[in-house]
Write a structure and sequence with these properties.
single chain, 236 residues, alpha+beta, Elongation Factor Tu (Ef-tu), domain 3, Membrane-bound Lytic Murein Transglycosylase D, Chain A, 2 domains, 4-stranded antiparallel beta sheet, 3-stranded antiparallel beta sheet, 17% helix
Length: 236
């Protein structure tokens, strides 16, 4: 029934003059691993889940209604998550050798890589990955294989696969204030700014207001006049 349904769908597409594009998974470092360089999925995914999460942090700011202000710190690396089906029942080939071994290699470190890392890869599928955010170099960070059909001798010929392709950077598209090790030399205070807010902006830590107060001989941190010029030196 399964193969009949797939065959019927293909016949309908061909009758309509549509030639289905095969989704591919490419190993971008093929000289080190599988010489094929890419594999085609047996059946294109029925759904693909894309995720990209803006990240925010908060710091105290008494001048706001809530007493806090949210700050954008970057985006979690985008990811594509999907369920794929690989099938070799027609040829009788071992589905592991034909497809799954290729995917497993994408989870193993590249030989002699320094620092050690798994190979970069890419998922491509016709018009879908021609967008400006759906085609990116990735690492295979999740692989789950469920073998669902076997020949009489135990050879697996069908496998359901859950994969997640994720951009290798942990944070992309923004600046994380906690990563700053040096501060600007001066800061001109404007209306509504507080010392702890400025500290968070420059050092990623609202508690660093004490450092600013000490370096600028500020006796009352609650009174910060607009136009005041602050010296912002690196934290000691």
């Amino acid at each position: 029934m399964f193969l009949e349904a797939i065959a019927t769908r293909r016949v309908r597409l061909l009758a309509a003059g549509i030639s289905p594009k095969k989704a591919k998974i490419r190993n971008l470092e093929k000289p080190f691993l599988d010489p094929r360089g890419s594999i085609e999925v047996s059946f294109n995914p029925a759904s693909i889940r894309y995720s990209s999460s803006p990240q925010y942090d908060s710091a105290k700011q008494p001048s706001t209604d809530s007493g806090y202000r949210m700050f954008y710190t970057g985006n979690v690396a985008p990811a594509l998550d999907m369920d794929l089906l690989f099938d070799t029942t027609i040829t009788g080939d071992d589905v592991r050798e034909k497809y799954i071994d290729f995917l497993v290699d994408l989870t193993r470190p590249v030989p002699d890589s320094d620092p050690m890392q798994t190979p970069k890869c890419m998922f491509t599928w016709g018009d879908f990955t021609r967008g400006d955010y759906l085609s990116f170099e990735a690492v295979l960070c999740n692989l789950r294989v469920n073998y669902t059909y076997f020949l009489a001798n135990g050879r697996p010929v069908r496998a359901e696969v859950d994969v997640t392709f994720k951009a290798p950077e942990d944070v992309a598209g923004g600046t994380n204030p906690t990563s700053r090790s040096e501060a600007r030399r001066v800061w001109t205070v404007v209306q509504g700014q507080t010392l702890d807010w400025i500290a968070y902006q420059e050092y990623g830590d609202a508690a660093a207001w004490r450092h600013i107060a000490r370096e600028n001989n500020i006796r009352n941190p609650r009174v910060l006049k607009p136009g005041t010029i602050l010296r912002l030196t690196p934290l000691k």
